[in-house]
Amino acid sequence: MLSYAGRTDSPRPQPVPVRVGGFGGVAGLAAYLKKEAVTHLIDATHPFAATMSAYAAEAAQQAGAAHMMLTRPAWEAGEGDRWTHVADIAGAVAALAGEPRRVMLALGRMHVAAFAAQPQHHYLLRFVDAPDEPPALPRHDLVVDRGPFTLEGDLALMRAQRIDLIVAKNAGGEGARAKIDAARAIGLPVIMIDRPALPRTQVAHSIGEVLAWIDHSAQRGV
C-alpha cells in the first residue's frame, strides 16, 4: 500500500494500491497498521517531513511493525558552491533582509507565504500544480512544472529570470539537484535550509537496500 499525503493534485500512476490523506496522528497510524496487519513500514517521506517521520517511527513501534526510513543522501557543498546555511524557513526569511534581489524560491508552495515578510524582492516560484489562489507575494513569477529537472533547463530558467539568489531545502537526491548545479555553474549564492532532526532508526538510501531488508526480515519470520 502506497500512502500519499495528498499535497499533489495529480500524482503519477503507481503499480500498487494507493491511499491519500492522513491517518490521525500516531494513534491513527498505529491503528491502521494493526488493522491491516502491516509487517513492514517504509517511511519514504520528504526529508523535511519531520512530523510524519516521527509519527511513523512511534506508530511502527506501537503496532509491532518493522520500520525503515528510505531517504536521499543530503547534498554537500563542493568547490564553487556559495552556500549560506540556515536552520529553517524563518532563518531563510531573515537571511533575505536587505536590498531588492531576484530570488528563486525552490521550496514548493507550502512555505511561500512566509516570504511576504521580505516584500522588496522579486520571487521566482516553481510549483508542481497551479495554485488555487495567487501566491501572497507582491512581485513574483510562477512556473508550473514537474521534475526531474535538468542542468541545462535550470540554467536557461535562471538566466532568463535574471536570478541573483536561490533559496532551497537540502532535499538531497538527483531529481531536484539541477538548480544546485546550475547555481554553482554561474556563481549564484544559495541560502541552504538544513534538514531537521529525524528519528533514530534504520536508514536506506536506495530501493535495493529496502528490498533486501524486507527479504531478510521475511526469512527471519518478522
Task: Describe the protein's architecture and organization.
This protein is an alpha/beta fold and 222 residues long. It is 29% helix and 21% strand. It contains 6 helices and 11 strands. The chain has a 6-stranded parallel sheet. A 3-stranded parallel sheet has the order 3-4-11, sandwiched between helices. A two-stranded parallel ribbon has the order 1-2. The longest helix has 14 residues. The model has no long low-confidence stretch (mean pLDDT 91).
Q: What topology does this entry show?
A:
Elements: E1 2-4, E2 18-20, H1 25-35, E3 40-43, H2 50-63, E4 66-70, E5 83-86, H3 89-95, E6 102-106, E7 122-127, E8 140-144, H4 151-160, E9 165-169, H5 178-186, E10 190-193, E11 202-204, H6 207-219
Parallel strand pairs: 1-2, 3-4, 4-11, 5-10, 6-7, 6-9, 7-8, 9-10
Helix pairs in contact: 1-2, 4-5
The secondary-structure class comes to alpha/beta
Number of strands: 11
Strand proportion, as a percent range, falls in 15-25%
| Cα distance spanning the termini | 18 Å
The largest beta-sheet arranges its strands as 5-10-9-6-7-8
Q: What does the main sheet amount to?
A: 6 strands, parallel
Looking at the structure, what is the overall shape? elongated
Summarize the amount of helix as a percent range.
Answer: 25-40%
- Number of separate helices: 6
What series of H and E elements makes up the topology?
EEHEHEEHEEEHEHEEH
Low-confidence stretches: none
Q: Report the C-alpha radius of gyration, rounded.
A: 19 Å
Roughly what is the average pLDDT, rounded to an integer?
A: 91
